[in-house]
Request: fold
Amino acid sequence: MKKINLNVNVEYLTRVEGHGNIVVNVKEGILEKCELQIVESPRFFEGMLRGRSIFEAQHITSRICGICSCGHTLASIQAAEDALDFTPSPQTIKLRKLLLHYEMLDSHILHIYLLVAPDLLGVKSFVPLIDTHGAVVRRALRMKKTCNDVCDILVGRHVHPISAIVGGFTKLPKEKELDEMLKYLKELRTDMDATIELAKTLVFPSFERDTEYVALVSDDSEYPLLSGDIGSTDGVRMNKKDYKKITNEFIVPHSSAKHTRLSRGSYAVGALARINLNFNKLHPKAKELATLLGFNNKVTNPYLNTAAQLVECVHCLEDSIKIIEELKTTGIDYSEEIVVGLNENKKIPVKAGSGVGAVEVPRGILFHHYEIDDKGIIKNANCIIPTGQNINNIECDMKKLVPEAIDKNKEEKDITLLLEMLVRAYDPCISCSAHFLDVKFVK
Amino acid sequence: MKKPKVAFFDFACCEGCQLQVANLGEDLLDILDTIDVVEFREVMTEKWDQGYDVAVIEGSITNEHAIEKIKRIRERSKILIAYGSCATIGGVNGMKNDFELNEIEAHVYQENAKHFKTVPTMAVSQVVKVDYFVNGCPIYPPEFITVLKCALAGLPYHVPDNVVCVECKINENICMYDKGVTCLGPVTKAGCNSWCINNGNVCYGCRGMVSNPNENSAKDVLSKYNISLDLIKNKMNMYNKCRELNKNEKDKS
Reply:
């Protein structure tokens, strides 16, 4: 690396969920510091869950994050049902898959349009785009609204869903509502096609760093999001119960911060990881786009995570339409509607146990783990979120990116932007700091 | 006319309420036509260094840094709106106050706990003066728009102080107690259009307790359905634990 000095200090990185700082120090060509610091106010969710009923866990943990509240809901329910030995009905599973698709669509669209696109179009936020790219902003807000509307129909609302709970759904969509969701989703296809055309014109920074990608894997032909084993591009495969052997929290010698690693220095989760592992299982229409974008081979440019999200948008949209059409054919069994509350009417048998939920949420694989006593009271809770697993990998990317950028004679402000864009590409969700694996305290 | 300068800030929260604002969809553009959003970290890089006509605050106050920050924002703002349960009543973050601070910090962060010194969770109004409240977890978008309009027009807005049951009856829901489960509707502030019960779930009390709950009738309901007071209290504490801080203040004086 060239013998120069460089100081990058981005306080409160914008256009990410939650609060984080980027700090890079280069002294006479030596990289002294390269960190993504997390400064979110801790909220102690795992501590607060102790003593609450397992039937309240979904309601509470969905409040970890507004953007991923449906994802936390599904991971929480899965962990709770695993602890209770409760098997959900096939209809319930189908509706949960639909909910996860909606979550994926909503979150990815927000990230692609409102958080990433301003960088690629050279502006500070979507606000100036209202004047220069009015039609694009309107399309983005319209697409977001559609995702929101279908969520409203399915679970009452997107932010902190109401009807998806342990045991099933408290309200099942009427036939008319299935038609309505189908209509909205089919209309969304037009805007999705326009989004694909827009994406083809965007140029992402070029940067390569091979890493281990981790995502759910399975033996069947379905793109695994709601269930599966945990797999990696380095050939690891484990049952979800062994999630701690995947995350391997460890302490870095020069700081007390915890990182995660599996087969090598760091690993990545998220849309890029999922496509790197499960490209073949994408919906044909999504696969076609993925091939065009080069995802038929392992992609190691982290900036392309945003492109991978677009591929998943197409997949989730098409698969949602397929699921609703199937539900329309079979019809919905309304006798499955449940009333649980705190389970005062003992609808669901309770026993002591331990359960793990592992669900692919927009930013990667999310783990919830609860231990409950024979009355269903939570004794211990653990949530490991995707962003926590990505932090170590982001820092490894930064450590390769900075020297390369300096050698290409990039100016400080360009390097800063490249770093900001890198962190944003991972779509970090710092609010999910219920249990942040990598926490550095900034004095 | 010059557009009012409006800024959005978040403290300890899930950022779901600002997402509710983003979820207004194209209606958001109409709002943006009438105000000048000068800070909104989650979607904007732009920063503003002067006064705010309106500051919209999400999240509860949980450490010394936040106390200082909210005081500075208050000084710079003509009008301050607290929105969401975390900001208006402390919300789920308040459950932390059920534990000894040292114990819960050590439980989550072990040897790193010393870096995460916090104070008992407080609602924004427990630290600075709040001019408008938009209750709920998350906020109910139509109410947020009403409050914003009132704030910009200089009109007062009163959070409904009747119980959720009133709206629930209008929506013709079957009472959750008749279905065999407890519900906090009988003691919780209305204004959400009984959102959760309409969708087959119970009320969790996210809008806060009415100022004058009908305790006798609530007790009648509990005894009719043979429900213990502890169970209800524990449920109430999911969102409303921070109200005890006010009680302690009163005890001291």
About this structure: Residues 64-76 of chain B form the longest helix (13 residues). Residues 164-244 of chain B form one domain.
